Give the backbone structure.
Amino acid sequence: MTATTTTTAEESRTGVLLDGTGRAREIREQAAADAAELIARGVPPRLAVVVATEDEGAGWYVRSIAGAARRVGIACDVVELGPRASADDLRRTLAGLSTDDTVHGIILQTPLPDGVRMEELAAEIAPEKDVDGVNPLSAGRLAAGLPAFPPATAAAVMELLDHHGVALDGRNAVVVGRSQVVGKPTAQLLLQRDATVSICHRHTTDLAAHTRAADVLVVAVGRIGLVSAEHVGDGAIVIDVGTNTDADGRLVGDVDTSDVARRAGGVTPVPGGVGPVTTALLLAHTVRSAQAHA
């Protein structure tokens, strides 16, 4: 499969790895070109990442975003509030960044301190700077088919499907997971592309019966090895959004890739699939926000 060849699930070749690094590189290159143009016009794009945790995995992710941003010409401020930060501390910080004309993108990194919920804070991020689509207004506009920044991970799923030429019109798509940042927005984006969409979750009975009917299967629950070959129909396209750490400290997904590859038409690897595209899209969204305010 290639980015220029439209591929249905039936036409896919069994076991193809749907790598995301190539598409991520293309997105970064375009973001770098656009950032350079903005800088020349006196509008340097700036991203702010608010952090209130000492979680090692979150720290690694934030450092990777900051490094990627600087490599494409986007200034990145990591605002460290510490794990004892209160909801009011976070609220004031987000409100200040939202009114700062030099800041074009805002990310609130999870996990948050004990007792602090994302739902309480997301509305403090100005929708035009909400590059990861967490503000309820962003979610509502997405559901209504109106312009908004979608959550970057959900958008990355769609980028990968398009990059590898996977047809969606009229296809059966099953999303396993119903989170506000991946499952639900991914389902909305698939619906906008005229797929027939089902959402499965932990209360779904006989998960395999639902997933085997999928032409396109998106898995985003955070459970190692949840999906195996028995869950996948012949030739299906499987997008693994899971990011888990196994007993050996390796990053693994929700899909048993080697097992699923025996039946699937294509499957995304972890790492190297959805992840790099997600990071690249956060940068692209920040540049787009800066362009809107230039």
Summary: The mean pLDDT is 94. Residues 43-126 form a domain with the Rossmann fold fold (CATH 3.40.50.10860). Residues 53 and 83 are 4 Å apart (CA to CA).
